[in-house]
Design goal:
Helix 1 runs parallel beside helix 10, helix 3 packs across helix 4 and helix 3 (81-102) packs parallel to helix 7. The protein contains 15 helices and 24 strands. The model is unreliable at 1-25 (pLDDT under 50). The protein is of the alpha/beta class and 512 residues long. The strands form six sheets. Strands 3, 4, 5, 6, 7, 8 and 18 form a seven-stranded mixed β-sheet that branches. It has a six-stranded antiparallel β-sheet with strand order 19-20-23-22-21-24, with helices on both faces. 30% of the residues lie in helices and 24% in strands.
């Protein structure tokens, strides 16, 4: 902040607040002020700066309920995609070490995992990314302000430092990209007091031990998956269904594999309270609605993964008329990311109806920056956005689920090609491949345009990424059949798929 106090900026005391003012050479201090320094906000700010815009980014991380805090980069870098994938990789390596013995490797002594060593390595990598983001902003001449931002009007943002100092900035356009944070249930005594969330799990210095993961979102299943893979006793508590919003046949395969992998599931269960015992253990009491009884068990950690809340409450949006969805608290946005107030835009997780995915926010932020700079009119395309759930058996998908395809086109208007296959890697290691499955959902008539593609198996994210491009190009089933596969890979199974669900024939792949 000292650097800001030199040159054109100066602090002055007004009504006991420190307000930053400057001698303006134009109508506004900046062309663009971005509130939020996550992946999307940073991408938007850097793109705008490269196009000649004068840009500032305000970012401030409120510590979690447990006091966990982190640096610049948002959820993905600090408490999401990056540390999650690294811990997922740690779990996969544990399985690989066991498999290695089947491949002839001689391993002496028992295999064990040290959480502290892994956590330190992961956290050090995350910190290097924090620093890298700051360097990139400096290189692109984006002003970074470690302040909590709120909006005063359509051209004015107020920032507050951790010490309580305030400053105001004016901008031609303001972009909100503050994302969301994990929620705690409000009706479960002891939930917040004794629990943690995904904001905390990746920054624990000691192993969480025996863990209850409450919720069945992708965050829940991914965390439960790597905890199980690291050798921890892990239970997932599910109120209704797993992976809501995803194809439910695929969701069933994911959880079936996890159960075989060692993760325990408590289905149709609702937590009632969490009590800390004198021993330090956490006693969780819940209603088992499947059996109609009350149950309890003790755990070392309780991880809540019951949804996320948008970071909108502290932005002052109600005072300036920015429309929010009353149920979700997210900002209502148009196709161009505009809000109900001119010159104020929002995108990423905070936008109503937008996918809560980092790559989507990054691309949407870049498109928005180009439009605001007058270099483009292109809008973000939110159709056929690919994603992968990094559970022990990965699940990748792009396009429509089978349920959504049938809803839009009718059951008779959809043709589903599917196959159960066995990855070559699973053979010598003697893994059960009963949940390795793929399906290609097509329009039944005409050239059979592909509507959705779903895949469970090793490296599902890598497989799905390539096919996402084909859906953007309006790929058809005939295009699949004309494409030569790479042998031997799991991805090539998609080129060979020829059995329809409608036929009722056995879809198990035989031979190599």
């Amino acid at each position: 902040m000292a650097a800001l106090c030199r040159g054109r900026h100066r602090w002055k005391r007004t009504n006991y607040f420190h307000i930053l003012t400057r001698n303006l050479t134009g109508k506004y201090d900046y062309d663009l002020v971005v509130v939020g320094g996550g992946s999307g906000g940073l991408a938007c700010s850097k793109e705008a700066a490269q196009l000649g815009q004068k840009v500032a980014v305000m970012d401030y991380v409120e510590p979690s309920a447990k006091g966990t805090k982190w640096g610049l980069g948002g959820t993905c870098v600090n408490v999401g995609c990056i540390p999650k994938k690294l811990m997922h990789q740690a779990a996969l390596l544990g399985t690989a070490v066991k498999d290695a013995q089947k491949y002839g490797w001689k391993i002496s002594g028992p295999i064990s995992h040290d959480w502290s060593s892994m956590a330190e390595a992961v956290q050090n990598h995350v910190k290097s990314l924090n620093w890298g983001h700051r360097v990139q902003l400096q290189d692109k001449k984006v002003q970074y302000l470690n302040m909590k931002g709120s909006l005063l009007d359509e051209h004015t943002v107020k920032g507050m430092t951790r010490a309580g100092k305030e400053m105001t900035l004016t901008a031609k356009n303001i972009v909100i990209a503050t994302g969301g944070r994990p929620k705690f249930p409000t009706n479960v005594p002891g939930a917040m007091e004794h629990g943690i969330t995904s904001d905390d799990i990746f920054w624990l210095k000691k192993s969480p031990g025996k863990t209850l993961v409450v919720g069945a979102s992708y965050v829940s299943l991914e965390c439960a998956g790597f905890l199980t893979g690291l050798g921890l006793d892990t239970t997932v508590m599910v109120r209704s269904i797993a992976l809501r919003g995803f194809d439910q046949q695929m969701a069933g395969l994911v959880t079936d594999y996890m159960e075989a992998y060692g993760t325990k599931f408590s289905w149709q269960s609702v937590p009632k309270r969490v009590d800390k015992l004198s021993s330090g253990a956490l006693q969780v009491t819940w209603n088992d609605n499947q059996m109609g009884v009350e149950r309890n068990d003790t755990f070392d950690s309780v991880l809540w993964a019951v949804g996320r809340a948008p970071e909108t409450k502290a932005l002052g949006l109600d005072k300036i008329g920015v429309q929010l969805n009353k149920e979700t608290g997210k900002i209502v946005v148009g196709a161009d990311e505009s809000t109900s107030v001119p010159n104020i835009y929002a995108f990423g997780d905070i936008g109503e109806g937008r996918p809560e995915l980092t790559p989507t926010a990054i691309k949407a932020g870049k498109f928005l920056a180009r439009r605001l700079a007058g270099h483009s009119t292109e809008l973000m395309n939110y159709d056929n956005v690919p994603t992968t759930v990094f559970t022990p058996l990965e699940y990748g998908c792009v396009g429509l689920s089978e349920e959504e395809a049938e809803k839009r086109y009718g059951k008779d208007g959809v043709e589903v090609y599917h196959a159960f296959y066995k990855p070559l890697e699973f053979t010598v290691a003697e893994h059960d491949a009963g949940q390795c499955y793929l399906k290609v959902i097509c329009e039944r008539g005409g050239d059979q345009k592909i509507l959705g593609l779903h895949f469970t198996g090793p490296n599902a994210g890598e497989v799905t990424q390539g096919f996402a491009l084909s859906l953007q190009c309006r790929a058809t089933y005939s295009h699949l059949l004309k494409t030569v596969g790479i042998h031997p890979t799991v991805a090539e199974e998609l080129m060979k798929v020829n059995i329809t669900k409608r036929s009722g024939l056995d879809a198990t792949v035989t031979g190599c």
